[in-house]
Amino acid sequence: MPETTLDYHNDSLSLSVIEALADATDTDPVELEPLYHVVDPEALDQLFQGNTPATARVQFSYGDHTVEVRSDGTILVDGTVHERP
Fold first, then answer.
1. Does any domain span residue 3?
2. Residue 75 within any structural domain of the chain
3. What does pTM read for this prediction?
4. Into how many domains does the chain fold?
5. Containing structural domain, residue 73
6. Could you tell me whether strands 80-82 and 65-70 are parallel, antiparallel, or unpaired per DSSP bridges?
């Protein structure tokens, strides 16, 4: 049976959100307030796996920023699209 390796940078939407916030705020990701203070990262990852409706999205505030995550993997911070790696 082949092993499946989880690629956290491509498979974890919550890590992509952190990277987008770091980029938007010009801050090192480790210096950011933990994402779990505003949203459950595991729930966010699970919400957008599998058969998520094409129109699904989650929007939340992170400090002074508005973050929107769409079912196609698009992440917007304050209306600016951040590409996933």
1. no
2. yes
3. 0.81
4. 1
5. 8-82
6. unpaired
How far is Cα 15 from Cα 8, in angstroms, rounded to an integer? Answer: 7
Residue 2 lies in a domain: no
In order along its 85 residues, the chain shows pLDDT tens digits of 444 444 444 568 899 999 999 999 999 999 999 999 999 999 998 888 777 777 889 999 999 999 999 988 899 999 999 977 6
User: How far apart are alpha carbons 11 and 27 in whole angstroms?
Assistant: 22
1 within some domain: no
Contact 23, 12 (CB under 8 A): no
Instruction: Name the E strands within the chain.
Output: 57-62, 65-70, 75-77, 80-82
Taking residue 74's Cβ as centre, other Cβ atoms within 10 Å add up to 15
> What is the four-CA torsion angle of 4, 5, 11, 14, rounded to 10 degrees?
130
